[in-house]
Amino acid sequence: MRRSALACCALLFATQALARVSGSVALLTDYRYRGISLSDDSSAAQIDLDWSAPDGWYAGAFASSVRLAPYYHDDAQGLGYAGYARRIDADWNWEAGAAYAGFSRHHQYDYPEAYLGLVSAPLQFRIHYAPRYFGQGPPVVYAELDGARALTDHWRLLGHIGVLRRNGGAVDGVSRHRYDARAGVGARIGAFDLQLAWVAAGGGKYYAFGYPSIRISRDNAVVLSVSRAW
Amino acid sequence: MLRTLVIAACVVALAACVSMPPQPSPPSAQAADRQLLVMLRTPPPHFRPDRNYAGGYDPSEGRQTRRRLGARLAREHGLILLDAWPMPSLGVDCLVMQADDPAAARERMRELARDPRVDWVQPMHAFHLLAHNDPLYSVQPAARAWHLDELHKRATGRGIVIAEVDSGVDMKHPDLRGQVARSRNFVDDGPMPAERHGTEVAGIIAAVAGNGIGIAGVAPQARLLALRACWQSRSGAACNSFTLAKALQFVLQADPQVLNLSLGGPRDRLLDRLLDLALEQGISVVGAVDPDPASGFPARHPGVLAVANDDAGDDDPVAGELRAPGRGIPATTPGGGWDFVDGSSFAAAQVSGLVALLREISPRADAVQLRAALARVGLDRPIALGLPAKRPMPIDGVRAPRQ
């Protein structure tokens, strides 16, 4: 028994020795989540901590300042995630995981989400499923494709398209789909990463999907962000 | 709104204040025998809510983590961490560590090989470019021997990308203007310097045709990826395992049709694995044959189109070796000039151009088909290319798509 416990400890220690802990802090002029502002069209600060092991297991936590309906007070979002990723070949790997988003003042918006992904260096495709989008919304499926292309050593083009489909939450005359897109440039300057992106969203009205907003958020926005990873 | 503007101003000011890292000098070839390449297995890329669509091959991604792990590992083994680079195609991070002397490096290598955190460890190998550069040795333009005028009626390399892993290329040379699609410097953080060997090879492959000056490249409408992995020094031009691996990793991401390696050196586990991936990816790899029989990379790597001078001896040829003119080849030189050059480097460069023409005609041709198209099949001596009496290319180039 004691030997087994020691072996388990040794294995855990070995895994920890191989695992990587990394993180980032970021400032954004607007926290756009799938095209909708979660910061009331104003600035936000974010922090992320990630643990990942070479065998594919990973977990992490993310926090962001937010401003949500109905009072738009300063609030905080926390998001925990865990999953497993596995290489398919030199270019591609698949992953599966789950995340749970919670809010410090507005627990009614807390919700879980699961995802599957196919990831390569320049392209990332993921499909997410949330049974209660933002706690009070209908079940939704969100499919997204992200891409990046290096222009030079320091500059790159960024692109994203996403489609959100709700399966319920019937609201007369409102489409079941929302779309969001993002196009921008990223620059690596020293230890900092700068991104300037144009974000657009459209389709069914946000309230039919459960988004924590009662104001009409601008459909299009230009977002500037700077982040530092460690 | 005011808050947003203030944050935006802070963001820009913060970024502008960041000083660029100092520009290191090229690696010392003498230090290679006390340096080790240590590979650490990396976790696969995965979901990160903070990443804001920041995908792509970005060597600075995870740099801090990589350096932190590498520095700790180096310290534990009595080594100094010099550099670190991600090799996502192999799922490893490549760390360069240095010992006090070559004997200590060998001892540390044995220790690191037993460390469970290390995927594998290998010596840092030195490589060299294969040029003699005897000016005006003779005037024997290979273009004439291969009847490029006729060939260019069928193909000029349009739509083909050729990666040239070499020393720096003079991209302002009038015969190379517009021919370089992308360039990267893997030797140091500085801009691409105009160096001799890289500029010569670039011109032979893809110099502008019909511009009234200089030379016509074998594939004048192909585009080059100019990847500096070698550097010019007083003792010649050199590369090492690390700079070459960084360039090959870039090649895997960029996915060109042709890769030219006019260099030679010992077999190297890291480079062999990257080259295997390039071949699996369908990239046609052309390597110059090093006259030194101890040299294994890249010409003796299976699947590589190995090219020697057509006047090379028949002692110990590389299996399936191709022969091409390697003396008196006109080439572009840094500063906007031209010169005649000699060496298997330039024989290989010409074959890279020919392969680009064949890939234009027959995009899916594999290495076997290309070799058959490039040479007379069934010869049991090294295969001769470009001999006027045989003129294999126009005929075989047509035949390649049918094979």
Q: What does this 3D model show about the protein?
A:
The complex is a heterodimer of chains A (230) and B (403). Helices cover 7% and strands 59% of the residues of chain A. In chain A, the strands form two sheets. Chain A has a twelve-stranded antiparallel beta barrel with strand order 1-4-5-6-7-8-9-10-11-12-13-14. In chain A, strands 2-3 form a two-stranded antiparallel ribbon. The N and C termini of chain A lie far apart (40 Å). The N terminus of chain A is likely disordered. By secondary structure, chain A is mostly beta strands. In chain A, a hairpin with a 2-residue loop joins strand 8 and strand 9. Chain B has 403 residues and is α/β, with parallel strands linked by helices. Chain B has eleven helices and 18 strands. Chain B has an eight-stranded parallel beta sheet with strand order 7-8-6-11-13-14-15-18, with helices on both faces. In chain B, strands 2-3-1-4 form a four-stranded antiparallel beta sheet, sandwiched between helices. The longest helix of chain B is centred in the C-terminal third of the chain and has 18 residues. Chain B starts with a helix and ends with a helix. Chains A and B meet through helix 1, strand 1, strand 4, strand 5 and strand 6 of A and helix 1 and helix 2 of B.
